[in-house]
Hints:
Oligomer: single chain
Shape: elongated
Distance between the termini: 7 Å
Bound molecules: uridine-diphosphate-2(N-acetylglucosaminyl) butyric acid
Amino acid sequence: xxxxxxxxxxxxxxxxxxxxxxxxxxxxxxxxxxxxxxxxxxxxxxxxxxxxxxxxxxxxxxxxxxxxxxxxxxxxxxxxxxxxxxxxxxxxxxxxxxxxxxxxxxxxxxxxxxxxxxxxxxxxxxxxxxxxxxxxxxxxxxxxxxxxxxxxxxxxxxxxxxxxxxxxxxxxxxxxxxxxxxxxxxxxxxxxxxxxxxxxxxxxxxxxxxxxxxxxxxxxxxxxxxxxxxxxxxxxxxxxxxxxxxxxxxxxxxxxxxxxxxxxxxxxxxxxxxxxxxxxxxxxxxxxxxxxxxxxxxxxxxxxxxxxxxxxxxxxxxxxxxxxxxxxxxxxxxxxxxxxxxxxxxxxxxxxxxxxxxxxxxxxxxxxxxxxxxxxxxxxxxxxxxxxxxxxxxxxxxxxxxxxxxxxxxxxxxxxx
Length: 417
Ligand code: EPU
């Protein structure tokens, strides 16, 4: 298994380009199932999770071609409605094929995703939403089986805004008979990206980006050419890394509007940030001040940035309260940060109390999930000495060419095969 070795203590300086968003690309690629023809997706990042969804679609009978950040998916040959355990277990987001398979073929069988390191992550709202559209749903031998000759539009209320749940229901409802209204829908930029794409394919969706999404069903979708939005979490990760090393970094090809929560909190911590239409410049200098954060659905502070922000707070002046309110077990990185000298107390109520220390010390550490791995990279960049991070396959799921990008900014970071 690959490891990442970082000789820390260097300021990050220079420019970095942001890749397309993993969490936007995954539902877009799944949406190609709805189309009897070839869709083209641009700005798709080369990542493990993208390979996983591609393999899954190919297993269903789609023809995919992926080169130089452009993926084409021809869904005309899809002849299988079953997403097998061996493919789904590698990536929970495989659940995104459930809605489109059911909408197009009236039948779908998808392995039920298990929990993962950060939480139980049930899919009950995906299933109750599909049932509200008239699907008959059974769980048998670890598989979700959904059937409906024709889905019928309905009112669906989500108890909690769910990102992939909203996406799955949007993709199911586009071909349903009549109108569907999703209430308390997720408002993430990835939802708007998917709704825009589906509308380009001929769907009739309004309200995406707000808590109420209306979908008027249509008979058929047509092929389209779609561009994936920039990755807001990769953007935020580079912002925090620049601040943590007290560097000066221009982050290009991003959308500052999508990462407003992180920008505000970094400014509150004393980091200098200037934004332009598609660029963010981050200048660190003096030690940052401790600030409190609470993770919330968009536009709140993203849970996918909590680990990285915690690393910054480890060396801030004062005490920071970090409240994780989306996932029940997303503090595994805290124990690794403590091995590097951080002073963190974890309470049973998903609260981390982080007392700033003057510096972190290099140490061998282990990544437990995708964003935890990014937090350990940032810790390694700050700490003087050599940090070796193992289990970096987690990072490869969601950060494109990360060692190359950090190396261009002056980091001493190499992959050990
Ligand atoms: N939830 C339920 N029932 C459901 C669905 C969700 O109880 O049927 C709960 C979850 O357990 C969680 C909350 O609702 O407590 C929100 O979860 P959500 O469904 O929004 O998460 P997701 O769709 O599974 C996506 C991202 C995650 C990101 C979360 C939250 C993708 C592919 N994944 O997951 O990304 O953390 O939204 O923003 O879009 C990552 O990229 O590292 C990552 C984990």
